[in-house]
Design brief:
Length: about 280
Amino acid sequence: MQKYADYIRRIEIDSLWSGKKHIVWELSPKVNILSGINGVGKSTILNKVVKGLSAGGEFPSHMLKGVKLEVVPEDARWIRYDMIRSLDSNLSQTLTESEALLRQPLASYAGNSNGFSLLDIQLYNLQRKYLDYQVNIGNRIIEQLQQGKMDAAQLLSQKKTRFQDMVDDLFRETGKRMVRTENEIRFTQIGETLLPYQLSSGEKQMLAILLTVLVEDEQPYVLFMDEPEVSLHIEWQKQLIDLCLELNPNVQIILTTHSPAVVMNGWVDAVTEVSDIEV
């Protein structure tokens, strides 16, 4: 049986680049915000950790040389994680092999063959996970109902409803609302039905982040975010951390940011300067 970590306790990097900057970062189980001017290594720290994790296999043998993680519990050998980036660039000229395989389904999804972006790919993949999530929740609701546990069944449905309420509230100023009679994500706006690819970059970004957290179904896992605020309205930046923790109280957030708004709702103490973790 695979034993998963509840959270990462410490990140240690022997050499951030060119033999310089030894990094030791002690982490909180909940929220960790890395700050600093451009070029000091914020994104590099996240990228080195995520690149090792993305190689797959039993932890820690697949980590990059010189990158060490301490986790809780200590004997855990697997880490659930996701990575959110701020990019929304067009992929028509820069498709990797795996992304190229998605060209045809994405062409149908986005209505053309060239106009989709990194966020469109994220949202396309998240749609599939969202459908699986709904099936799993539905099966558990049926099981509770069969046992006569009405209250437990109702509780299971509340997280999806809360997610939909969150999105409606965030998109309220543009008149967009989630369609709640369909399993796939759709929006209505002044009588028109919209697919996720038709949203603005900021709306796509926020939807992708909240979906990513929701479909983990309250399991302990690590959410890395590299400057997620780039496309987000300042009011959304202020709410970002709290909304993620509400959807999954068991998520550990590790993010980089330039924005003071991200920490305004009581997260100033969670900020670490890169200079403070150089040894």
